[in-house]
Amino acid sequence: MPEGQRTDQPDRLTVVIAAYNGEQTIGRLVSAALASRVVETVLVVDSASADASARVARELRAEVLTLEENRGYGAACNAGLARCTTRWVAFCNQDIEPAGDMFAELLEAAMTLREAGYPEVIVAPKLQTDDHGFAETAHLLPSWRQEVRELLFGQSAAAVRNIVVDGGRDPVRVDWVSAACIIGPVAALRAQGGFDDSYFMYVEDVDLFQRWQARGLATFWVPAARAIHTGGRRPISGRLYARSLSNWVRYFARTDGAVAAAIVAVAGIAGALARGVFWAVRSGRDPDAAGYGRMFLGGALGAAQLEAGMLRERLRRGRQIKPPAPGAGRPRGKPE
To answer: pTM of the full predicted structure?
Structure first.
């Protein structure tokens, strides 16, 4: 597939699937994508999986791009974006299970929105959990103060997550959606530089949509299109939760400055410790509590270590910057 080439088919789609050790789930997504009437290409970007993810995708007739190392979700999506030959691209986690022809429903919604005055638009389906509850879907961009409230007191305190739970069937404009499943215009995403792949994992979607919105572009949640996100509500490891907290700190350092980021860091660590203790106490009565306890306590410790390491690095760099010598920078020669 020639890198960077575009076709003249406005109603066709490339589905980019970011894969890492996903042999148990990726086949269902590949099959659903290949069966869609609007999908031109299914491209699985395999981030050096140790399992048979790439083989499963090839056997189903998907194209496979194998990366030499796992550089994270954003990097995998960017690698796929660079190879798109259609005008539209879908980015999907490997554990997404579309309901019906979700890709066609989303693309048709995007085309309708373009005709309604949104020339460059990202759309996303209603995401649901295995038990058909609501997963992370449609949100407002948080201020750093709202994020502090969420980290300390929970999502309801911030009032920015899952702002629309059941919006009927009409598209709803929102600030950001989970990048576990989105469709957007290839040219506009390339012009923005895609994801900031230095995030590796977590908050890369918030960063993408904040920059998208800053360019005056729109994002819509399309509840008529649905998908199951099978990994949507499971506890993650303490190491990954620490990375999530650290990425929030990085995000707010960029958007609001060092002081706001430091407050977010303290709130994140304190909130994780409090939640960790809460779940640890419940571990004898709740079968899921032990996993959440390890996630939060391990996350608090890991985030503290990450932030301490970055502080030491900033101090080290500061010591290496020597003040200019007296007279440095003055023009040579006789004064006028």
So the answer is: 0.87
